[in-house]
Specification:
Layout lengths: L9 H28 L4 H27 L1 E3 L6 H14 L5 E5 L6 E7 L2 E7 H6 L2 H17 L1 H24 L9 H44 L2 H15 L4 H7 L26 H17 L1
Parallel strand pairs: 2-4
Antiparallel strand pairs: 1-2, 3-4
Amino acid sequence: MAQTRFAPDRGLTSRMVMTMFFIGLLYVVVVGVLVVLLKGAWVVIMLLAGGMFIAQFWFSDRIAAFSMGAREVTPEQAPELHGAVDRLCALADMPKPRVAIADSDLPNAFATGRNQKNSMVCATTGLLRRLEPEELEGVLAHELSHVAHRDVVVMTIASFLGVLAGIITRVALWSGVGRNSRDQNAAIAVLIVTAVSAVVYAISFLLTRLLSRYRELSADRAAAILTGRPSSLASALTKITGQMARIPTRDLRKVEPFNAFFFAPAFSKEHFSRLLSSHPTLEQRLDQLGRIAAQLGRS
């Protein structure tokens, strides 16, 4: 990654490499199965998959912004938010990303982008209204570390294969392959494609969840060290998590698909599962910040 003053994390780098290796391996398996079983349709599926991959990679930031209702703002429209981002970028010695605001009472923030020069950091109106300036800087530093470490790109690519597996299953079913009862081979092909897609989706889902939990701890650590104020980040975490319980369940459900990109997870109670969570627990995050505060105090 491009050099910044964010603390490097070899553990995160190794996990990203391993995730991309296994995702690539799964991709090869899927393509191989399709080539063997769907000889007549594999070209169309390959073109569709390639087109979707390119579109998601190049337009992931716009897709996320549109889905969350984010709008890019100028320094004149949001001087405090821009000022905080300016200070952090100067402190981290990194290019300034585009700055956006999402009109939502959900207190949260996220970052997207395929590299530091094509990135965006977004805060919701609910977050801006609830946090103190130092708390907001802690959250923004957390999101900027995602951009600096490039784990946003890895998450985008890793999550793509799960989406692709679901689409392949639908294409196989909608194409009518195997509807002719006399063509038993085609029927078996549909079953195999569906089974392989389901397995690929499950594996890619677990891989992205494992990486996502670690990258959140890494971003907390990098933000706390950069700002030198782990207590402010801990305060923001506690405040946001507490406020999340007051958000209507229907609003939480709408944004749950984007949890992997959020600063804090938006979970409705009936859907919460630690195993499937995209984030570590609040206790884990606060415990790590407490240790960092003690280390900074000793130094």
